[in-house]
Design brief:
The complex is a heterodimer of chains A (about 375) and B (about 450). With about 375 residues, chain A is of the alpha+beta class. Chain A has nine helices and eleven strands. Chain A is globular. In chain B, the strands form ten sheets. Chain B has a six-stranded antiparallel β-sheet with strand order 24-25-26-23-28-27, with helices on one face. In chain B, strands 14, 15, 16 and 17 form a four-stranded antiparallel β-sheet that branches. The chains are: A alpha+beta (about 375), B mainly beta (about 450). Chains A and B meet through α2, α3, α6, α7 and β11 of A and β21, β22, α3 and β27 of B.
């Protein structure tokens, strides 16, 4: 499925009467947090979008996939046969680090059904597309859901990646994602806003429970190490819903032990319901398959994958099979449509003084001491 | 106040004949607390680990403290040495999700624990001294221990001052139960601590916050007054604190004393949130403090900014990687050096194929005749098909850079300076059997120590 943008987002921007710019005061309701036409948000929760029914029968009629432990028992049964580490553990780790599309002796269970969370990325309604859970939106492109929907790790509320991936993102400053809206006149309707993503440098402002997050905190934008995460989108706000598109997005995505992983969503677009305290919705786009896979295996060891019956070599084959965009020179798609649920709270974003930012913008190659 | 010693010399660089081509490097080295030792032991100030205990021949002493790993504990409890002459043939199943009982690589030549970690035996005439005690082994022999932990040397150490057997640096999660050099206490006042990090021996507060010096200060006077004190907190000294060795005390104002180290007043940065932060050192005029810095990298190597901090890189700016490996037998022998089985590394970087491996994580080639100023960095010859050290003049051998006696690598898919795409590549995020970038600074996690 090739990308054909512009139907759902963006076209309406053209010709719409812009308000008279950032100089106009924001509405009274928004005025407390919109300063100089700017409002910031910090990501507090995110998960790969997985539509779930209560008993999972609709989307996973044959159950959940096996994980590394279950597959290991199938491949190497306790039959008294003497085996080497090379042909067992190291062979399995070879498959993790050098995945391929060869068939496996166990089936991979893709998510099925009519519904999925996400966006209609190509403006079309095709045979592999989903409808939104309320049926209102047709043509939702989310082939990533087919790949991960029947893997326990990705399912809420307590799948290992679903739960801990989010928990780590809340905990580690490396993963702090900021969204800054500029040229904002109103959080209800504004035909032309600019949306910029940054990596933040500070902890989240929690409530007294330590588990909830409060608006009104402050985050410093990372202009030194986080250049990779600075991306600008054009957007608009209609009836309190922000839509923005036009760029790829790189998200910091560190999880378990000291990894510095990223996610890369190509041709990303945001759809977020906004208010002065926070934002909630999805980012959707085409997830780069190799980056997704590397993030998975570099941030989640086989042990950690086992918690959620997540076999990365098996998932890789599914990702490659279901990839639906950005074909390479051989015609193999390199990206897969997908979406993330996201929640933000409002923050005041601080940028370094101009001279500091300019200094940080330089990336000198220093000579090592010798 | 403890008995602080004088600055001591660095001995490893003097053993030219035994260690190959490198020139002695003169650097400030860390001082330590002198304490009684049994006859036949000494302290050597090493280039990577600072002061360590060594035997009469200069071989660094190591301990193997017990560590909980996924499916059990390995290592040694105090006064209970377990490293013996058993040659383990199968893995122990300690590392989830894989079970035990599988035949280990190169099992025919696998050594026993004692063959690679020779015990430091005591004689019947030896007597305990201070923290130095003598423990009974199951084989009936007696072994020296320090602070209760049985002592060993490493076959990887070749010359006095080598610490190739292990490090005091904090290891990443799910790393093997590594052996650590055993050391005397650093000669610092009780408010301070010294930590082994990628850039050297890092001076900090006793709980780990960075301390800093200021260019405008002198040995006897602090220039940080007024609004400066909103951002920097002097490291105050007690009324009865006295100067000793590198340490002295100045009086900031009547009755208010401040520690100085090597003629510079010390401060913490009020805004520092994380331990061993380098952020204060980014501010012009302010510097982090080391009791000794890391040995010089080979000429031409560079430092590159990444998305999380800084890494050591080659002359073209490509990130360097270190390979980590400990096997899963009960004695947790290292598999991270060319003397050990290479099947682990080949599985991770090449799917078992050395040729693929050499493309995925190629060696860092050293120029012919390349020399190092220290023992930390050495050019070595490697057979790329086997991953083992090459024999002199061996056809097809590669002349490559090694750190702590282990080759360093590049990552084939890194496209530009600052890329770290090969970081955490391998079992348990690259800590157990895999690759980690050569982190020098990590502002977000703890990769640099």
């Amino acid at each position: 499925m090739m990308r054909d943008l512009g139907v759902q987002f963006g076209l309406l921007l053209v010709g719409m009467t812009a308000l008279s710019g950032a100089a106009i005061a924001a509405s009274n309701a928004d005025g407390a947090v919109i300063r100089n036409g700017t409002i910031g948000y910090v990501l507090t929760d995110y998960h790969w979008a997985v539509y779930q029914t209560q008993d999972s029968k609709a989307e996973c009629p044959t159950g959940m996939n096996d994980g590394p432990r279950e597959q290991f028992k199938i491949l190497f049964p306790d039959d008294g046969k003497k085996r080497t580490l090379l042909e067992t553990q190291l062979a399995r780790e070879s498959a993790v680090w050098h995945p391929d599309v060869s068939p496996e002796p166990y089936p991979f269970k893709e998510a099925t059904g009519k519904y999925a969370v996400g966006l209609n990325l190509d403006g079309k309604v095709g045979p592999n597309d989903f409808s939104s859970p309320d049926g209102a939106v047709k043509g939702i492109d989310n082939q990533l859901y087919r790949a991960i929907g029947c893997i326990t790790a990705y399912r809420g509320p307590d799948g290992a990646v679903h739960y801990f991936g989010n928990k780590f993102a809340q905990q580690y400053h490396y993963d702090r994602v900021l969204l800054e809206l500029t040229n904002v006149d109103s959080l209800t309707n504004d035909s032309d806003v600019t949306v910029t993503t940054y990596r933040g440098l500070d902890g989240l402002l929690t409530d007294a429970t330590g588990n909830g997050f409060m608006p009104g905190g402050t985050e410093r934008a990372d202009h030194r190490w986080g250049k990779q995460f600075i991306t600008r989108f054009k957007g608009k706000i209609v009836d309190g819903v922000l839509t923005a598109d036009g760029s790829d997005v790189h998200m910091p995505a560190s999880s378990t032990f000291e990894d510095v992983s990223v996610q890369w969503i190509r041709d990303a677009r945001f759809q977020l319901k906004l208010n002065q305290d926070g934002a909630e919705g999805v980012v959707a786009g085409y997830v780069d398959v190799e980056t997704f896979y590397r993030q998975l295996v570099q941030a989640w060891s086989t042990h950690h994958q086992s918690y959620g019956q997540l076999s990365s070599p098996s998932l890789y084959k599914a990702l490659r099979k279901l990839a639906d965009a950005y074909p390479d020179q051989q015609g193999h798609n390199t990206a897969i449509s997908g979406a993330m649920d996201m929640k933000f709270v409002q923050v005041f974003i601080q940028h370094p003084p101009a001279e500091t930012a300019a200094k940080d913008a330089e990336t000198p190659a220093r000579a090592a001491r010798h | 106040m403890r008995n602080l010693g004088k600055l001591v010399g660095f001995v490893a660089g003097l053993s030219l004949a035994a260690g190959g081509a490198y020139a002695a490097e003169k650097r400030l080295m860390e001082d330590y607390v002198k304490s009684p030792m049994p006859p036949g032991f000494q302290v050597i100030v090493t280039e990577l680990e600072g002061p360590v205990f060594a035997d009469a021949k200069g071989k660094t002493l190591y301990k193997w403290p017990i560590k909980s790993i996924r499916n059990g504990d390995v290592g040694e409890q105090k006064n209970k040495p377990t490293c013996d002459d058993t040659v383990y043939k199968v893995n122990a199943g300690l590392m989830s999700p894989y079970p035990g009982g599988f035949t280990l690589p190169e099992v025919e030549t696998r050594p026993s624990c004692l063959q690679v970690w020779p015990a430091v035996y005591a004689t019947a005439e030896d007597k305990p001294v201070g923290k130095w005690t003598i423990v009974d082994r199951k084989d009936g022999k007696k072994q020296w221990a320090y602070d209760g932990f049985a002592l060993y040397t490493s076959v990887l150490d070749e010359v006095p001052g080598d610490t190739r057997g292990g490090t005091r640096r904090k290891e990443g999660g799910d790393s093997p139960a590594y052996r650590e050099p055993v050391s005397p206490a650093p000669a610092v006042p009780a408010q301070f601590g010294v930590y082994s990090v990628a850039k050297g021996r890092f001076l900090a507060t006793s709980i780990g916050y960075s301390v800093y010096t200021y260019d405008k200060d002198t040995a006897t006077k602090s220039a940080c007054t007024g609004s400066c004190l909103n951002e920097w907190a002097p490291m105050l000294a007690a009324e009865n604190a006295v100067a000793l060795g590198d340490w002295a005390v100045i009086e900031r104002s009547p009755g208010v004393k401040q520690w100085t180290y090597r003629k510079k007043p010390l401060y913490t940065r009020i805004a520092d949130e994380k331990f061993r932060s380098y952020e204060g050192g980014d501010i012009p005029g302010w510097h982090n403090v080391f009791t000794q810095t890391e040995p010089a990298a080979p000429k031409g190597f560079t430092v590159q900014d990444t998305r999380a901090g800084q890494v050591l890189a080659d002359k073209n700016g490509r990130t360097l990687y270190i390979y980590n490996c400990g096997d899963d037998a009960i004695d947790e022998l290292a598999c991270d050096n060319p003397n050990s089985p290479q099947a682990y590394r080949f599985a991770i970087c090449g799917g078992g194929d050395p040729d693929v491996c050499n493309k995925t994580f190629p060696y860092v080639i050293a120029e012919a005749g390349a020399k190092s100023e220290n023992r930390a960095w050495t050019p070595v010859d490697i057979n790329p098909k086997t991953g083992k050290f090459a024999k002199p003049g061996e056809a097809g051998a590669l002349h490559v850079w090694a750190y702590r006696g282990r080759p360093v690598y590049l990552f084939g898919n890194d496209k530009k300076p600052g890329d770290v795409s090969g970081d955490a590549w391998g079992e348990f995020n690259g800590h157990r059997n895999g690759f980690k970038a050569f982190w020098l600074r990590d502002d977000f996690r703890t990769n640099a120590g």
